[in-house]
Amino acid sequence: MKSAAVLPVIAAAEPVLGANSGQKFARPVVVSTWDSGMTANAAAWRILKAKGRAIDAVEAAARASEEEPSCCVGLEAYPDRDGYVTLDASIMDHRSNCGSVVYLQQIKHPISVARKLMETTKHVLLAGDGALQFARENGFEVMPRKLSADAEKEWKEWLKKSEYKPVINIENRKISQNEKSAPYTINGAVNHDTMGTIALDAGGDLSGACTTSGMAFKMHGRVGDSPIIGAGLFVDNKVGAATSSGVGEEVIRICGTHLIVELMRFGYSPTRACREAVRRIVDRDRAAAKEMQVGFIAISRTGEVGAFAIQSGFTYSVTNSGTSKVFASDSIFKAPPQQPGS
Ligand code: GLY
Predict the structure, then answer these.
(1) Residue 194 is a catalytic residue
(2) 20 to 30 A from 194, CA-CA: which of 161, 246, 247, 307?
(3) pLDDT tens digits, residue range 23-67?
């Protein structure tokens, strides 16, 4: 095995919202992608603080994200290029049980369908019509096929050029007036394409959940990393857990979260493991990487939390009994990327 000591050193970035370079947090603790992860964390914390299980906490976190329009991951998120909102979600517990749904439509809480699959069947992943049928058979309400007003407006605007460019921030919602000075904005947008949550409960067990509508205006049928166990989410109770946000194709190529947990198994800190995963993406095609965002978060079984991203602007939220705070991730590229056309 390659020694940790020979890895290239990447310069530390200026902390933006609060520095956390490998800080250890007392359990129970929950960590979510992005500043909007505070919404997810609040739902998880209600369970964790009462000594509830990590698996219940991460499901609650993902449900909260799926309900919150500004998280951009549920039925109110942007559609694919043909106008359909297709959702992907995955969940994994401390015993390596896992469940995923992909290309699921008209269901408000794909994360709960993924959990139902995990707990009541021998399967791990259901797609499309089969996932919808499973949801319906298990009492999930099938919602009308309808875009939110904002999603419909943005999609119609996008249709004027119909350029499929799965690059950084294409899926972003516009920022509101009171967010304009927020340090985590990139060229006037907030990058919240996927909500991932990892938690360590009072009993020392880890779980994770990840939910997304995928890239806005993606090809119909496209599936990203979020529902792929080992790409967008991985948990090993003996080691740690990791999840991701950003351009899923890049995360799938390197089996990102599995890589991170395996590096942690061999002694890497969560931050260093996330940094190594990001470095592999950037090394594959540095020019392409300059145009995209991928961010990872990770937690060790002892409560050490870390993150790393390709671009500046990736944030993550940490909540435990003493902390409820958004942290800025370090990144390979320090300056905000230029938007197409900006
Ligand atoms: N990271 C979410 C996606 O690429 O679909």
Answers:
(1) yes
(2) 161
(3) 999 999 999 999 889 999 999 999 999 999 999 999 999 999 999
Ligand 1 binding pocket mutation candidate from 194, 220, 253 (most atoms within 8 A of CB): 194
Cis ω before 340 (30° cut-off from 0): no
Cα separation, 52 vs 83, whole angstroms:
39
Helix intervals (H) in the chain: 37-48, 54-67, 110-120, 128-137, 149-159, 248-253, 256-265, 270-284, 286-289
Name the residue with tokens 């009492």.
139
Q: 105 with 132: CB under 8 angstroms? A: yes
Residue keyed to tokens 């060229």: 187
**How far is the centre of ligand 1, averaged over its atoms, from the C-alpha of 210 (Å)?**
10
CB 244 within 8 A of CB 194: yes
pLDDT tens profile 80-120: 999 999 999 999 999 999 999 999 999 999 999 999 999 99
Task: Report yes or no on 269 lying in a domain.
Answer: yes
Cα-based torsion angle of the residue sequence 147, 149, 154, 155 in order, rounded to the nearest 10 degrees: 30
253 contacts: CB under 8 Å, gap ≥ 6? 281, 284
Pocket test for ligand 1, best of 220, 225, 253, 297 (most atoms within 8 A of CB): 225
Ligand 1 site, CB within 6 A? 193-194, 212, 214-215, 224-226, 245-248
Q: How remote is the CA of residue 5 from the centroid of ligand 1, in Å?
A: 32
Task: Report the separation in Å between the CA atom of 212 and the middle of ligand 1, taken as the mean of its atom positions.
Answer: 7
pTM of the model: 0.87
Is residue 176 included in any domain, yes or no? Answer: yes
In-domain check, residue 10: no
CATH of the domain at 155: 3.60.20.30
Range of the domain at 89: 23-333
